[in-house]
Specification:
The chain has 124 residues and is mostly helical. It is built from seven helices and no strands. Helix 1 runs antiparallel to helix 2 (18-30) and helix 1 packs across helix 4. The protein is elongated and about 65 Å long.
Length: 124
């Protein structure tokens, strides 16, 4: 992963404003150095981000896809555990062909959120 990509992720994780992220990334790219030289010049991306945004007043909340995926996984787990404890098979109510795609879609939503956070360029 490139230095600027790691720096963008580190700044986002600290709750930095998108305009600040764009300015910092633009400044780092304007140095026209390789990743190793940038790390020597500016320090590790995580340390540089900590210096720019020491105490974040707000942390970025989990994305909606992650929340939906975790809620769906939790509901599925509760249905399986509680259903098994009382002798009820969730597949009888939903059917085996409906349950598997729902779990796959929930997992895909979580992965999609991580990928979209990684691939998104800073605005500005």
């Amino acid at each position: 992963m490139s230095y600027t990509r790691r720096l963008t992720l580190a700044l986002r994780s600290r709750g930095a404003d998108e305009a600040l992220i764009a300015d910092v990334v633009r400044e780092a790219e304007s140095l026209r150095m390789h990743d190793a030289a940038l790390e020597v010049e500016l320090g590790a991306p995580e340390q540089y981000a900590a210096a720019l945004v020491p105490e974040s007043p707000r942390r970025r909340k989990a994305g909606p896809l992650i929340v939906a995926g975790l809620v769906a996984a939790g509901l599925w787990l509760v249905a399986v555990v509680v259903g098994g404890a009382i002798g009820w098979d969730v597949r009888d109510a939903m059917g085996p062909l409906v349950l598997v795609p729902a779990v796959v879609l929930a997992g895909a939503g979580v992965v999609a959120q991580f990928v979209s956070d990684y691939a998104r360029r800073p605005r500005g």
